[in-house]
Amino acid sequence: MSLKQYIITRIILAIPMLFVILTIIFFILRIMPGDPVAAILGGKASIEVINQLRHELGLDKPLWLQYLDYLKNLLKGDFGKSTLTGRPVLSEIMDKFPATLELTLFAFMVAVTIGVFWGAEAARKKDKAIDVSARIFAILLYAIPVFWLGLMMQLIFGAYLRWLPVGGRISAFVDLKPMTGLYLIDSLIQGNWEAFVDVLKHLILPGVTLGLVISSIFLRMVRNNAVLMYGQDFVKAARARGIREKDIKYKHALKNALVPIMTMMGLQFALLLGGAVLTETTFSWPGMGSFLVLRIRYRDFPAIQGTVVFFAFIIIVVSIIVDIINALIDPRIRY
Amino acid sequence: MRKWLLVFFTVLVIFTAFATSNVLVVGTTDKIKILDPAKCYDYFSSNVLQNIMVGLVNYKIGTAEIVPELATKWETPDGGKTYYFYIRKDAKFSNGDPITAKEIAWSINRAMKLNGDPAFLLTQVIEKAEAVDTYKLKIVLKQPDVTFISRLGYTVGYPVNPKEYPEDKFFNEAPKMSASGPYMIKEWIRDQKVVLVENPYWYGPKPKIKKVVIMFYEDPATLRLALENGEIDVAYRHLDPRDFLDMKKQGLVKTYEGDSPQIRYIVFNVTKKPFDNVLVRRAIAYAVDRQKIVNRVFVGLARPLYSMIPMGMWSHEDIYPKRDLEKARKLLEEAGYSESNPLKIDLWYTPTHYGGTESDVAQVLKEALEETGMIKVTIKYAEWSTYIDYFLNGTMGMFLLGWYPDYIDPDDYTAPFVSTEGGKSLGSFYSDPVMDKLLEYARRFGDISVRTAFYDVIQEKMAKDVPFLPLWQGVATAAAQPNVKGILLEPTQIFRYYIIEK
Lengths: 335, 502
Hints:
The complex is a heterodimer of chains A (about 325) and B (about 500). With about 325 residues, chain A is mainly α. Chain A has helices at about 5-30, 35-40, 45-55, 65-75, 90-125, 130-145, 145-160, 185-190, 195-230, 235-240, 245-275, 275-280, 290-295, 300-330.
C-alpha cells in the first residue's frame, strides 16, 4: 500500500471510530446519575421550572429521539448549544483551545529540548555523571505530581522572588485584542511589545512546569532507545570509519531511535491538546482542561460531548501526521 | 548610557504607578454563568450585575435595609394588592436611553414570561406590571405579600434596555448590553477577565475608582499567591480558611471578615426510615457538635447556628437545643435503640460544591453522633449534580446542604424549607398543613411585630419537628493590599466595587 492510500484508508476508518466514540459518550452521560437542569438550578428552583427547562433543552424526549436529533445536528456541523451558557459549543471550544495550544507548544519546546539533547548525550556517555543525573532527574520529575511542582514554582518565582506572575494568561492592566487566540502571536501581529512580554511571563511558569514533567518521559525514552542504538553494529562501524562523534550521535544513533520516540511524542502532544487539567487548574490557565472539568460538574451534555469528539478528532489527526513523519524518517516503513 | 537607562526606568515606574492607581484588580475563584437578569441566579453573576445595574429598590450600604433606587417612593392604596412606584427622572442607560416606567414594566414582564431560574421570585407574587405614565409604574400582586419589596431587591427585577434585549430569549452578550449602574462592562473574556469602566450616564455619586478588572482564578492557593505577589488588589471568594488565617497572622495584606447570610444545615428526609421517626431526628439534634465543626474544620471562621433564620436577622432565636448527649441517649432509648442495638444511619455530603471542607464536616459529625454510643454512622458522598438528583427523588435520608438567600427576609429562610412545596424541592418531603398556614399568615401582615410573633411559632415548630437541623452560619472573608480602602462585606452579601478607594 502506498502512503497516500494508507492515509486515505486511515481517514475513512476514522469516521466509524468517531461515531462509536460519540455514541458511547452520549449514552454514558445520560446513564450516569446527575441531571443537567438540576445542576444548573442548584437545587433551589421549583419542580415546574425544572420541568420547563428540561423541556426547552429537549431532555424530556425519549433517549433514542435525543440521540437521532444529536446525530442529525452533528452532520450539519452543529455541536449544539451549551446548557450552561446557551452559547454554541463549537465557539466555546474555539475560545478555549488557543490557550491550551499555546501552553502545549511552549511546554513541548521545553520538553523536547531537555529530553532530546540531554537524552542523546546521556546515551553516548552511558553510566557517566551526565547519564546518572539524567536518570535521577527523569525519575524524580516523573514521580513528582505536576500540581506540587507547579505550586513550588509559584512559591519560588512568584511569591518569594516576585519575578513571574502565578496565574492567568495576561495581566489585568495589559490590553490585547484577541485575534488568533494565541496571545504571543496576537501581540506580535499588533506590534504590542508590552503585551508580548507580559504574555511570555505568564507562559513561563505553567509552560516550564508542564515541560519539565513531560521532559522526564522524553528523556528516558530517548536515552534508552539511543543506548540500544549505540550498541548496534552500524554505530560501531561508523566509529570505525572515523565519522565525527556529533554526526554519529544525531545522524546514526538518534535518527534510528526516532521512530518509537516520534510516536510517543505525537501521542503526548495530542494528549496535551486535550488540556493538561492539573497544570491548567494550578496556574488558572483558561484552557480546555479546566473547561471540561467545569462542564462535567454542571452536566453540560452538549459541551462535554463536543469536547470529547473534538479530542478524538485531534488524536486521529495527530496520529496520522505522526505516521507520515515516521514513514519519512524511516523509508523501510511500508503500510 | 547607564544614566539614561536609569531615567527611562524611573519614568516608566512612575508612569505605571500613576496608570495603575485608578484601576482596581479583583481576583476570584468564582465564575460568571450568565449576565441576563432574567436568567442570572448564581452568586458571581449577580455580583457583577449589582455593580452595573440597579433596580427599583436597593439596600442601604452596609445594611440589610431597603432604600429607594430607581423608584423614589412607592405606595399601596389598597393595602398591599396594588403598588404604585414613582420613578426618578434622571435615570438613563449607559448608552443614553432613558429608564422610565415603560422600560421597567417591560423588563419585569419579560423576566416573568421567560421564566428563567430566578423568575419564581417574581411570578410567585406578581400578577402583572404596567406603566401608568412615563414616571409612574403599577404592579399588581396575586395577593398581598410583604416579601414583595425585598424580592425587588434581587437582580431579576432589574430593568434592561428593550432596544437590546430580545423579548423572547435570554441575552448574554456583554459588553453589548447597556448598564444602568455605576459601572458598565467594557470587555468580557469568559473565565479569564471582566473589565468594568465608569458609566457616563450614572445619576449617582461617581465611583471612586474608574476602572475595575476582575480576574478569574481556578485555585484558592493561586488566588492567595496572586494577592501576595501584587498581581491583584483584592481577593474575594474563595480564599481557603487556613490561608486566610495565615495571611491575617502575617499581616502583609489586610484581611476582612463580615457577616454572611449563608447557612449550612442537615436535611432529614422525613418519609424515609429511620428518619420518619421524630425521636431519631431530635436525638441527632441533641448529639451534633457545632462548636467542634466550627473550630476544627473552619478554624473559627464560622459561627454555630441554632435556628434556620440566621443570626443578625430580625426574629432570629436560638431555638434548637444545645448539645446534650444524655438527652440524645434518652430519646434514642425511647425510639427503641440501645448500645447493643444501635441506630445505623448514612450521612451524605457532596465533595466540591461547598468547597473542600465537606468531608471534614462529615467526619466531625460522625464522631459527635457516635459519641452517644448508640449510633453508627456510615459516611457517603456524591458529586453535586448527582447529589441534587438523589435529594429530589428521596434517595438520601440525612444529608448536608446549604442556602444563600434570594431576598433578605425570614420568609426566605422558612418557606422554601418547610412549606409543602419547599419540602419537595429540598428533599425533606416535610409537609404540615399548620405550618403552611403559619407561613402564609407570616407573609400577609406588614407589621414586623406581628410577623415576628408568627416566626417565633414557626421556629419553635421547626425545632420540634426537626426536618432541618441548622449547623453553622458562614463568615464572609476578603483580603486586600494595604492601600485599598473602603471594602465592605455587607450582610446582604452585595460586594460593591464603586465604594472602594485606592
